[in-house]
Amino acid sequence: MTKNRPSAEKTFTPPEFIRNFCIIAHIDHGKSTLADRMLQLTGVIEQRVMRDQYLDRMDIERERGITIKAQNVRLPWHVDGQDHVIHLIDTPGHVDFTYEVSRALEACEGAILLVDAAQGIEAQTLANLYLALENDLQIIPVLNKIDLPAAEPEKYAAELANIIGCEPSDVLKVSAKTGDGVEELLNEVVRQVPPPEGDEEAPARAMIFDSVYDTYRGVVTYIRVVDGKITPREKIRMMSTGATHELLEVGIISPDPKPSEGLGVGEVGYLITGVKDVRQSKVGDTVTSERRGAEKPLAGYREPQPMVFSGLYPVDGSDYPVLRDALDKLRLNDAALSYEPETSVALGFGFRCGFLGLLHLEITRARLEREFGLNLISTAPNVVYDVFLDDGTEHVVTNPSDWPTEGKIAETHEPISKVTIIAPSEFVGAIMELCQGKRGTMLGMDYLSEDRVELRYQLPLAEIIFDFFDSLKSRTRGYASLDYEEAGEQTAELVKVDILLQGEAVDAFSAIVHKDFAYSYGNKMTKRLRELIPRQQFEVPIQAAVGSRIIARETIRAIRKDVLAKCYGGDISRKRKLLEKQKEGKKKMKTVGRVEVPQEAFVAALSAEDGESGDKGKGKK
Amino acid sequence: MPHGRRSAGGTLEGVSTPDDLHLPDTALQGLGTRPFGVYVHVPFCATRCGYCDFNTYTAGELGSGAAPEDWLDGLRRELDLAAQRLGTPPAADTVFVGGGTPSLLGPDGLAAVLDAVRQSFGLATDAEVTTESNPESTSPELFAGIRGAGYTRVSLGMQSVAPHVLRVLDRTHTPGRPVEAAAEARAAGFDHVNLDLIYGTPGERTEDLQASLDAVLEAGVDHVSAYALIVEDGTALARRVRKGEIPTPDDDVLAADYELLDAMLEKAGLRWYEVSNWAASDEARCRHNLGYWLGGDWWGAGPGAHSHLGGVRWWNVKHPARYTATLAEGALPVGGQEALTAEDRHLERVMLELRLAEGLPLDALDDGGAREARRAAADGLLSTRDLDGGRAVLTDRGRLLADAVVRRLVT
């Protein structure tokens, strides 16, 4: 094969002239602006069309959902008398997608660590930096926004140098907004990031680092070729499942998608196979050619595992089909989202949904509400528990209602996580208090600079997904940033707390909690429901129970008066209509045993979670 | 549903045209075999009380063409038209002159009202003829005059004897006046005298209510009506509650008040026969009101008055000026009407009869309703003994939850 001169237009560039890198940055620290500036400087977009181009892209994104990944882009760069091809690879943006971030990092040899010169590094950025270091990526530390009056480049250069072990003078200083320093940064990418290595003659192996669903083209799969080559008009095979697909198109992004003759070692591009669901094109999987394919996949592939479960219910029961269709649509683009139908006495028909983490849950819920016009209520999130009974059987519990009630429990396991919190040092006491109150164990603490601290804790995942974020934010006036990753499991003394209304359990309020917290949960929920459930014609006990043991009790007193004083000739029509209306209202009531409860009361009891932690925050301020 | 009914048979308030009362033959079937009553609405008051949302006006609120003389003219026309519409009009078994403040008409005015009824419908020989009156506009002369004119029963608005309670209610009479008026009425030959009480007024203490009841019992009347204060939308009282000047009456306090007054009245030999009404004997019960509750027919004359004939309900336009103007053109002043469906009539029957001490025959309920009645008895809301006897009768506790029981029985 003849080797081309390096070019942004033509593929099969010799690996020695290729550089693959990504940008690790906190949201708002200027990643998109820097990427746009790079497109401009490398000439793939002319300066005067820059604005139009950018706007076009926004329009398409708005129309089709977020499907265009402008930052997986192939750029030409000439430096030190040599043409190069540099691939800028995008990393998924949030904390629950650690695994997917790790795959994007795996596709690179280097990373720009981009930090706002007025704010310093954030916990999530730090976590991604550690991931990059574990992947042996060459790190180029960069401070952005040095044009801001509030910028403290010297302070944060020292902080970055301290974290990655370089000299403060090694930290580049740029302004993505003005373009200041970006050219030098591109030069350093070529000089510092090692070229990719791979076997051109070996059977093809390419790693999927992202796959997105596009309404018009089906699934667009982003790959980085490690060995061999991928060419169009050949069949490919996904090594995790063995499924084969026709290749409809192989291309590069420069910055628009362009079909190409194929992709060689170290090159980054996209595949289109006509597949309609991202589950058939999984991040981390290895793509090989169907004929004379590779024997061994690339290391590191993992199935996405839901870690957090919650019941999602439409507030208006007639929206159930809308919710089902909406979940079906979201799943096309979200391989990690799982769901199955569930019914609840209190909330009606809904879905038990599995998420990678709390943010994944929140983003999914927000998208369902915003993009599909749904009004949803979610049950308190729970993690996955392993319950071992005395008879040796193991039960995996993703829903409190599945907690074993027959047989004696020998041991329960819960997932744990490693948590990193970065905050101004004045809040260390408050953060430690919070973490200890959530069964945390301190793993370490480092001063990043004089007044900024990194705290590392081991915490049960269940404690983080409850109201940890809100509590942390309110205790640190919003200054703390947080990252967590799963870290195996531990045994714990867990119990299921049921909330009983007149002796009948209300499913939506059952929760698995540590035995030390059972009383406070039971107390909180019984009190809350007593406030929310209207008085009935009889006294209604609200109890919290662990098994058959009652741990908290409140009573809704019987209503004493429900009668109109006057009912004479002129009152009859009006009174009849009032009763008819009340009868209609009665039909909308949920009945638990004999207790009639308006659904709003259940919804309010579940939503109170946020409101309450918010109030706590106000108290502290 | 109400909408369908209106478009099919009714007219909307404000678009009345001559002869727009739709009385199907079925409504007139059996007329005269059921008790027949006449209600006359007197829409005048000297002052407006803060809690009152009735259709009544002070002199300053009325425009021209709405003076009491105009109203009386209109009333005569309406009663004449009514008698014509009914073909052979039945004699009135009961007449009830309410308001407003009927006593403001004076003895001659009230006599003229009753004469108008006599001329249009006639009076049954043992007719019950009641007028409401406010203690401050009554006198021995008034009572003597109306007794002579044929009235048999007087209902006096007493409300309370506590001055601070009367102030919240905007009542102008002195606390001792109602008891005095009751004595005057009895001296004038009225065997049947009622006192109205309002309980649960913000600021009323238990001892205030007790004092009011002591006064009622001392007056020796044979009938008492007691109403929990309702804060009606659009009243001055509602505005004061909204502004936070006075608290909303508390249901638990109202329930305790009811239990207290019921016990005191029963002890004095006044027995409840409707949720808010107590009488010393069967003869002392208000037959006119029983007509409302037992599905009787009545013609309601006067501005805003409601009528019922054989499953058709209608109501007059509210404003006295429009009322008289419409009648001057020879048309009935119908403001709106509805023909009741079988389902409506069932709901009304359960809702009204359940409030009575005699209760509701169980065979008036469907299977689901009868099942619920047994459950309500198990909950202590219906009397088990009466249930075994085939009737749904509220227990003492059940009376305070009557609306809830009705919702259960109509499933």
Observed structural traits:
heterodimer; A: 621 residues; alpha+beta; Rossmann fold; Elongation Factor Tu (Ef-tu), domain 3; Alpha-Beta Plaits; 8-stranded antiparallel beta sheet; 6-stranded mixed beta sheet; 32 strands; 29% helix; elongated; disordered C terminus; B: 411 residues; alpha/beta; 9-stranded mixed beta sheet; 3-stranded antiparallel beta sheet
Write the layout of secondary structure elements.
The complex is a heterodimer of chains A (621) and B (411).
Chain A: E1 18-25, H1 31-41, H2 50-64, E2 73-79, E3 82-89, H3 98-106, E4 110-116, H4 123-134, E5 138-144, H5 153-164, E6 172-173, H6 182-192, E7 205-214, E8 218-227, E9 236-238, E10 244-245, E11 249-253, E12 257-259, E13 268-272, E14 286-289, E15 308-314, H7 320-332, E16 338-344, E17 348-355, H8 358-372, E18 376-378, E19 382-383, E20 385-389, E21 394-397, E22 409-424, H9 428-437, E23 441-449, E24 452-460, H10 461-475, E25 481-491, E26 494-501, E27 504-505, E28 511-514, H11 515-532, E29 540-546, E30 549-556, H12 572-587, E31 589-592, E32 595-598, H13 599-620
Parallel strand pairs in A: 1-3, 1-4, 4-5, 5-6
Antiparallel strand pairs in A: 2-3, 7-8, 7-14, 8-13, 9-10, 9-14, 11-12, 11-13, 15-17, 15-18, 15-19, 16-17, 20-21, 20-22, 22-24, 22-25, 23-24, 26-27, 26-28, 26-29, 29-30, 31-32
Helix pairs in contact in A: 10-13, 11-13
Chain B: H1 2-9, H2 25-28, E1 36-42, H3 68-85, E2 92-99, H4 106-120, E3 123-133, H5 140-149, E4 153-159, H6 163-168, H7 177-187, E5 192-199, H8 206-219, E6 223-228, H9 236-242, H10 251-267, E7 271-274, E8 277-279, H11 287-293, E9 297-301, E10 306-309, E11 312-316, H12 320-328, E12 334-339, H13 342-353, E13 360-361, H14 367-378, H15 384-388, E14 391-392, H16 396-400, H17 402-409
Parallel strand pairs in B: 1-2, 1-9, 2-3, 3-4, 4-5, 5-6
Antiparallel strand pairs in B: 6-8, 7-8, 10-11, 11-12, 13-14
